[in-house]
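Quick one:
INPUT:
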């Protein structure tokens, strides 16, 4: 797969609260758009490919790495000496490819790291022919130190012995996992719980399958509990195969987020709803109790409907303030066919969530001059704010005056999220050019123009309002998407640059990391595949105060000059960092891939834990200062648009008793929830303290009998009632 390398624009870095402008005006030929494959589409493609290959004669071979290094270019930036712990293998790259990021988890207080991976032949008992149907955890309770890992943890975390890839495929894919502290023994590492979520093809409906959860204590000999939530749910099959974000809080809750899709024969339809799963460990039953909240996009029936490319969830150190960020398109609110950011927040530990609100990177028709100036400042660090078309060329320009001038539209390719010590959200995202206003427009979201480049950007969002989101440019990527393994003609895996963002346990230090190739010091052997083996890069931030930050002076190539420089393909960075005597350390894995085996389903991938990926926390390590009120603000002016009608609704209705209530409160305060049966008898009552605004709240009434009920919500003199049915 040929890569189009964009070289015409100088990369912009954050500097003193402002962005450097492009180095002069550049002209380029008008390049065609390319269809972006979302993670969901890639997951489906890879699963189909694996199933097809498995119907043949599967032959597993050991991993033999393709060495593309052309000599050690030195280590001018990297100050640590990295070492690598060889962890377990996976049966194929699908632990990492298109996966949710969080298959590596770290807990600084317990000094524990875990890798959640699909199994390989090395894990299977003698005679076992289906190693890929099992999920294993590799655990180190000594901060990932070499020699401290318990590979495979002595057993399986999730498995299904009915594994048959043709008829009944329950094999775990794209796992995510966290190490949770046990509320009854929060400082006891042995009592900590490994909790995993994995996508499962249950083979029941011509489409996709369900969601598997599994958990066990780290204590030796602890039993494993696993559950399968099948896609075959009455009355309409709901697809559970699209989980993206995953996070745990200091209060012991685990959250996952996915888009709800309904399954019909030969088709899958997004319902415009985002599902937020909350899991809380019950010390009395030794099980995780779960609830689901639904966040809904408004769609007035326009075509195309809402589309989602990515979604992430994260909480701050207090476990109460959290955010959701979505890369999405909605025709009612987007001004261009591009994925942009939508955000929601919680102030009460995920009990209620605000409505999704647009935070638009692109131009809108109703923006005022101060708003335009803020976006102009930010976008000059990208491809620019405007372009002028002349014949077959496009030229960047700083002004919208004159004929043939159009705004540049940017689209979100991939993103990650964290929350700092002062409960400000930090979004780290990859963006690229989608189109140019009403010229060279595409037919729907998901198209991009790789010839014009891609960038990693950093958004900071205060907890009080989304209206003053700050955006800065971190770096320009060498290529938009990486290529896996040999990048030979028979191998066509691609990935995004996989932006990650991690924080220290206290939220005072944040690290943005991504994967890209250092073509100067480590050129690739194949000039057509310049990003075939990306390096791990970082940029660190020190949180000085609410909305006040300092940042390292340059991006740092962590793997440069190491034993695996030019060999690693991709990996994962845990959302939390470990503690070190001088600061913090990334809990990160990289992956090594064998030569592409052709048509077989088994394509082993080896996971390596990166030791000594240290981040100093001293004040002088962060020389560049900027703050929330500096230049380059993105100010949201879409609040006058109602993302929800202020009516009281319940979903699903009818349902099984796990419902999501959507309603509005004029003020914060104690709110009473009462449930009456069809005879008017009170059967359930509770009081909760809620924030003001349009809210979405998960309520669990599965313990009630089937029948007709009425939910009454009252705050002061204001009251509202809605009928719902439990089947």
């Amino acid at each position: 797969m040929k890569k189009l390398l964009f070289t015409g624009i100088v990369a912009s870095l954050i500097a003193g609260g402002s962005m450097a402008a492009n180095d002069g005006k550049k002209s380029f030929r008008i390049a065609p758009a390319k269809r972006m494959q979302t993670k969901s589409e890639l997951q489906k493609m890879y699963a189909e490919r694996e199933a097809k290959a498995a119907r043949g004669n599967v032959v597993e071979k050991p991993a033999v790495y393709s060495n593309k290094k052309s000599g050690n270019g030195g280590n001018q930036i990297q100050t640590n000496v990295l070492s690598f712990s060889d962890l377990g293998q996976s049966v194929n790259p699908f632990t990492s490819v298109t996966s949710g990021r969080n298959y590596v988890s770290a807990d600084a207080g317990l000094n524990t790291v875990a890798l959640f991976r699909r199994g390989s032949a090395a894990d299977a008992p003698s005679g076992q022919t289906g190693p890929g149907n099992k999920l294993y955890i590799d655990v180190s309770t000594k901060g990932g130190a070499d020699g401290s890992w318990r590979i495979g943890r002595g057993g399986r975390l999730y498995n299904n012995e009915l594994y048959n890839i043709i008829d009944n495929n329950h094999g775990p894919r794209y796992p995510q996992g966290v190490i949770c502290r046990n509320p009854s023994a929060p400082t006891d590492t042995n009592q900590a719980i490994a909790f995993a979520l994995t996508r499962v093809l249950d083979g029941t409906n011509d489409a996709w399958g369900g969601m598997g959860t599994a958990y066990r204590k780290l204590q030796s000999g602890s039993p494993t509990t696993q559950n399968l939530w099948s896609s075959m749910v009455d009355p309409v099959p709901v697809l559970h195969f699209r989980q993206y974000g995953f996070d745990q809080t200091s209060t012991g809750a685990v959250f996952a987020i996915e888009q709800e899709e309904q399954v019909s024969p030969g088709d899958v339809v997004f319902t415009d709803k985002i599902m937020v799963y909350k899991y809380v460990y019950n010390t009395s039953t030794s099980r995780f109790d779960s609830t689901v909240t639904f966040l809904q996009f408004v769609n007035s029936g326009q075509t195309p409907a809402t589309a989602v490319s990515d979604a992430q969830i994260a909480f701050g150190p207090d476990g109460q303030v959290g955010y959701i960020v979505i890369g999405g398109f909605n025709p009612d609110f987007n001004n261009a066919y591009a994925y942009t950011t939508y955000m929601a927040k919680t102030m009460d530990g995920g009990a209620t969530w605000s409505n999704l609100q647009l935070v638009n990177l692109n131009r809108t028709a109703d923006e005022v001059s101060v708003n335009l100036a803020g976006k102009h400042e930010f976008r000059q660090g990208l491809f620019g704010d405007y372009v002028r078309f002349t014949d077959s060329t496009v030229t960047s320009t700083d002004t919208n005056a004159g004929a043939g001038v159009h705004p540049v539209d940017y689209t979100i390719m991939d993103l990650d999220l964290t929350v700092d010590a002062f409960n400000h959200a930090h979004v780290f995202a990859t963006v690229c050019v989608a189109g140019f206003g009403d010229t060279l427009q595409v037919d729907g979201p998901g198209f991009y123009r790789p010839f014009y480049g891609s960038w990693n950007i950093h958004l900071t969002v205060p907890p009080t309002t989304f209206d003053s989101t700050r955006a800065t440019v971190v770096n320009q990527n060498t290529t938009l998407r990486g290529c896996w393994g040999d990048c030979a003609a028979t191998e066509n895996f691609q990935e995004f640059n996989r932006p990650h963002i991690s924080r220290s346990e206290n939220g005072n230090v944040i690290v943005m990391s991504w994967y890209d190739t250092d073509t100067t010091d480590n050129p690739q052997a194949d000039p057509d595949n310049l990003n075939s083996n990306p390096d791990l890069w970082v940029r660190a931030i020190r949180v000085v105060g609410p909305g006040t930050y300092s940042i390292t002076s340059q991006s740092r190539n962590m793997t440069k000059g190491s034993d695996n420089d030019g060999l690693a393909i991709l990996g994962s960075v845990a959302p939390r960092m470990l503690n070190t005597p001088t600061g913090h350390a990334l809990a990160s894995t990289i992956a090594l891939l064998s030569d592409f085996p052709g048509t077989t389903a088994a394509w082993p991938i080896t996971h390596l834990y990166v030791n000594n990926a240290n981040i100093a926390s001293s004040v002088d390590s962060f020389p560049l200062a900027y703050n929330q009120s500096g230049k380059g603000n993105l100010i949201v002016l879409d609040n006058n648009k109602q993302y929800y009608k202020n009516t009281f609704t319940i979903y699903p209705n009818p349902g099984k008793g796990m419902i999501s209530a959507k309603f509005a409160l004029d003020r914060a305060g104690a709110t009473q929830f009462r449930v009456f049966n069809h005879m008017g008898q009170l059967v359930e009552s509770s009081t909760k303290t809620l924030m003001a605004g349009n809210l979405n709240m998960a309520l669990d009434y599965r313990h009630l009998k089937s029948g007709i009920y009425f939910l009454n919500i009252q705050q002061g003199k204001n009251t509202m009632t809605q009928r719902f049915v439990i089947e």
